[in-house]
């Protein structure tokens, strides 16, 4: 789900805590210009103390970045001195991320196309018998649950579906969870939408997944 950011901001102001938002999957995919969940929800960026994101998704690079108020970033610089010369991004990765930003700024139609494809695949997968798409419409990160109550929480069933899809040339994954998680979300099948997918590709995805679910679940 896309987080209810406005409600989180209200809770933050009520209970006086700092809000940290991970935009690794929302940056470049949500909002009118791809600025992420803050833009999507109409929340001013100054209302979020720390925004962090991985550069491995939309920006096609490696590493991460963090955005915050001057006070927060000054504290990061002070506390992170020991890592500056051992964990900083190599120049070529920084250039790759900057190039990704430039491509996004110069081609706003990419975001429009991505949103259309996300809705198309959401609709195609919603027609698969035995599966329920639990992601919100418009999200390029799609999660699906098995509807059969006898096996909807069995990881081995999801793993078998993933394996059968892989044999057909479709790469999907299950959602990994740590044994340290205090609250473990439901197991899901997960896939991402990209702007390179055509309608025929997405129809094929739905067909392969439907076939795999039928073989495993019945």
Automatic annotation (TrEMBL):
Residue ranges occupied by any Aminotransferase class I/classII large domain in the UniProt entry? 5-174
- GO cellular component labels: endoplasmic reticulum; membrane
Identify the EC number(s). 2.3.1.50
Per the record, the domain of life is Eukaryota
Query: What does the record list as GO biological process?
Result: ceramide biosynthetic process; sphingosine biosynthetic process
Supply the enzyme class, top level: transferase
Keyword Transferase set for record: yes
Cofactor(s) the protein needs: pyridoxal 5'-phosphate
Pathway(s) per entry: Sphingolipid metabolism; Lipid metabolism; sphingolipid metabolism
What's in the keyword line of the UniProt record? Acyltransferase, Lipid metabolism, Pyridoxal phosphate, Sphingolipid metabolism, Transferase
**UniProt-recorded Gene Ontology molecular function terms:** pyridoxal phosphate binding; serine C-palmitoyltransferase activity
Could you tell me which Pfam families the record lists for this protein? Aminotran_1_2
- Family of the protein in this entry: Belongs to the class-II pyridoxal-phosphate-dependent aminotransferase family.
Which named protein is this?
A: serine C-palmitoyltransferase
Organism equals Fibrocapsa japonica
């Amino acid at each position: 789900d896309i987080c209810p950011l406005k409600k989180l901001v209200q809770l933050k102001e009520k209970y006086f805590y700092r809000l940290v938002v991970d935009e690794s999957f929302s940056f470049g995919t949500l909002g009118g210009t791809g600025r992420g969940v803050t833009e999507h929800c109409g929340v001013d960026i100054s209302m979020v103390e720390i925004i962090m994101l991985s550069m491995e998704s939309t920006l096609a690079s490696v590493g991460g970045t963090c955005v915050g108020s001057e006070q927060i970033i000054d504290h990061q610089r002070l506390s992170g001195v020991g890592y500056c010369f051992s964990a900083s991004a190599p120049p070529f990765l920084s250039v790759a991320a900057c190039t990704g930003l430039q491509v996004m700024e110069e081609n706003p139609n990419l975001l429009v196309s991505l949103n259309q494809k996300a809705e198309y695949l959401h609709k195609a997968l919603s027609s698969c018998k035995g599966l329920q798409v639990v992601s919100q419409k418009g999200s390029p990160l799609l999660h699906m649950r098995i509807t059969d109550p006898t096996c909807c929480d069995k990881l081995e069933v999801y793993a078998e579906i993933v394996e059968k899809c892989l044999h057909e040339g479709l790469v999907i994954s299950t959602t990994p969870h740590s044994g340290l998680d205090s609250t473990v979300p439901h197991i899901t099948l997960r896939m991402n939408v990209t702007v390179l997918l055509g309608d025929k590709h997405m129809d094929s995805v739905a067909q392969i997944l439907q076939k795999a679910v039928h073989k495993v679940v019945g």
